[in-house]
Amino acid sequence: MTDGSIGDLGSPPEGQVFFHHDGMISADEPGRHEFHGNVVSFGPFRLFAAERTLEKNGIPLVLGSRALDILIVLAERAGEVVSARELIARVWRGLVVDPGNLRVHITGLRKALGDGQQQIRYIVNVPGQGYSFVAPVERLTAHGPPARTAAYPCGAARKRLLLPPVLSRMVGRDETVRTIADDLIADRFVTVIGPGGIGKTTVAVSVAHAMREEFADAVCFVDVGAVTNPVLVPATVASTLGLTIQTEDVVPTLMECLKSLRILLVLDNCEHVIDAAAALAELVFREAQSVHILATSREALRVEGERAYWLPTLESPPRGSSMKAADVLKFPAVQLFIERAAAAGGRFELTDTNAPAVAGICGRLDGMALAIELAASRVGSHGITETAGLLAGGLGLDWRGRRTALPRHQTLRALLDWSHGSLGDLERIVLRRLSIFVGAFTIDAVCSVCCGNVSDEAQTVTAFDSLVAKSLVSASVADDNVTRYRLLEATRDYALEKLEEGGERQATARRHAAYFAHLLDDACGGEVDPHQDSRALSLAEHLGNVRAALDWCFGYSMPSKHIAGNAPRAPADGPTATDVHDAALGVELAAASVPLFMELSLLNECYKRSMSALAVLDDDARGSRLEMVLQEARAITSTWTRGNGEDVREAIARGLTIAERLGETAHRLRLLVGMHMFRVRAGNFCDSLVVAEKLDAVARNERDESYMIISDWLRGSSEHFIGNQAVAQQHFRRGFARPGPRNVQLFGLDCRVRALVPYARVLWLGGAPDRAMQVAREAIDEAAEASKPLNVCFSLLYTAPVFLWCGDLGAANDALQSLMAHPNWRALPSLHATGLALKGELLVRLGDAEQGIPLLERSLEDMRSDEQKILLARTACALAESLAASDRLHEARSVVSDAIAECAANEATVDLPELLRIKGTILIAMARADETEAEDCLAQSLTCARRQFSTSWELRAAMTLARLRATQGDHDQARQLLSSVYDRFTEGFGTPDLKAAAQLLRELH
Q1: Which of 15, 139, 647, 731 is the most exposed place for a label (fewest CB within 10 A)?
Q2: Under a CB-based contact definition with an 8 Å cutoff, are residues 621 and 599 in contact?
Q3: Mind giving me the DSSP string for 890-919?
Q4: Cut 0.70: pTM above it
Q5: Residue 856 belongs to domain with CATH number
Q6: In this predicted model, what pLDDT tens digit does every residue of 123-133 receive, in sequence order?
Q7: How many angstroms separate the CA atoms of 42 and 39, rounded?
């Protein structure tokens, strides 16, 4: 088990012994969590009915709730025939359900199980009777829990899985939605194809809403149309899922997440980046067996697993129809025409007289939704007869026979030409300029970007309102009651061509970039780590526009799209570099967009954008507040994406220099927090204390209560690692007792969560194991509540040592399993060495030294090479004990001696008492035991522990020395030594150390 996941650690082999901290040997390890449950086993599968979990070869296989219910019912009655009526009654619990739904879910379940592959059958249909589970079944009692899957979506991640609002009434697509939903369950991958304007997005949104219950709200809608760079397609999907992006290639991280989820992934408007979207969709389909994919595109993706669904046009009456109004109104195309004509403000009423004209219009437009909406918006100004005449005579739309994709696009272009030609001059200008927006925009954005040389903002708004009324711009009201606008896909392509033809693109793009630079700067007020509130979360909707604006500023251009024919495919390597259009504006926008990238955990992209901006700083910007923000962003993102390198220190130092010169106290304080983190991660604990004290001085001078709290926490952390536990506890208690804001996000981490973790360690060392575990769980709970990926992983990782110290191996196992099942774990390589070290220690404690020792050895080497030295000494302790327990005493002595030397060199003494104790234990166990040297090590351990006020280290050293004294025949001294430490404890008597000490005292009596 060296793949980075714990899985089911199981029970130690029968008769397995454990090497305890006091040198004692025992057959049982306290603190284990036992699991006993009934399991149905068949083939490579294990079904935990009570836990509603299915495993395949020990790996979770995620099914939908209906499919899982069906499997549980059939497996319970394996070999029997269960009628369709009974299955529906038990699975849908009294709801009236079409039997076709059961068939769809059975089909999907068979595919998930691999039924029929390699002539293996699990579920068969007995005609006229029902279904039967025919595979051999074995009923077991499991002694290990089912493999853990990622708990997702939750918290902030769930907030990002927001679906666009569904139309209050969708015309003529109900059966289509049901069919696509059924195909998605059975086949997992459906692409809705059709020309622009036919209603693909409307259908996809409706399908997504319809399937929310099936996927327990895990429906991720990605507007690929807002992505102009094909390279960013995987990153956009990952950020929508709430993943932290740390690496250059985000695909492996994204796939590791998706493999553990059952989710509906909707990829909307794929045509302009179709190669990238197709490659990703195929990979997801092939490797993430529980992910279902719904894509929309003007053409099929043509990849493995895809089921293409050609979206039909709305059913229309024949063009030469003489039907009455009541009969014509039965057609969905006519229903849409009437609704849009009324919405456009026209007083149109369908009558027997005008029914043939309406039928002719809808038939001539071949039931295309967008074309019908545009034509209907003309009825108010032209009337039904003139509108029909214009279509018949002026647009050349009177084609015969079935239309293929290309003529449909030509039809739409002709209709847009007509619509554009009927606009006033100002309306044309506004429409062209609106095409610069990628995705949704507000009326404020319209005023800022579209006015340009138009002096009267009121006239611009009037023209814009007219475009909305004429269906050239769509509008929807979001949950915040603010109306968002969007150009329909084909309309934007058309208007963008007009913008280029008119030579206005550069000036409009400049206003567009300036607007979003100002908007983002106002939204976060110069913050780098946004606070967890609606202000920060609302930034996500601007991502597409911000990316497009940054690409324009720094001289990246994407190929233009065309509405005639299929959209051209963008080059796989993304945008093409040209001349920088506006470096100064780009620097301003890059700095303002830092909170957006940080909020969406797009750390790697944030790093690149910041570095691009820093590379083009001019003399005016160098040393400015903009550079300060960019340097801070560079430091934060590099810390988590590239490790604790010298570039991080340089960026922090440069930012501090600028902040001090400009008097930017808030930034100075934040950067000092970052410098403290850098020093601690590098193992320079004494230097970190100097930084914490400087932070305290600045905070007191500015009377900043929040940073006074943080400075207490940072000083407590530094004192803890240096080895001054009593002083550390005072700082932590004072910080937690102060009134003021909590959960401030700084340098990527929640400061309170970051403080709770070392505070739990301080409590354990100070002789309060029960309180230590309580605080550790508090840190995990607070991080989970906020659901910031980095906070969650940080809390799970660094509380695991506390659980291991306290002997609660079940809690440690749970923490590490949750960590390594977290969707973002693979994206945090800077934490992997520490995580694998703790995993190795846990495996050894559970009796698997063969797997655990190599992990500890490799992790220790990685920590030294990566400058991640926070838990280096602890890892050395675990490795030395493990080697000693495996009778590799000389190797163990070498490991512990090297670690003691490193502690002395780095002034990192928190683990020194334990290292000295372990060395003494090893010396006693060696064939030529040197009791004098061993006693000297143990005496040093006791002295060091007392000096640090590390009562738990002192207890361990006292136990080992007492046992040695007992073997020498001096039971009284041994008893007095141990009882003098044991009697100081007031809690934790159920932990292994205290239970072992109590047992030893009884033996000595």
Answers
A1: 15
A2: no
A3: HHHHHHHHHHHHHHHHHT--TTHHHHHHHH
A4: yes
A5: 1.25.40.10
A6: 988 888 889 99
A7: 10
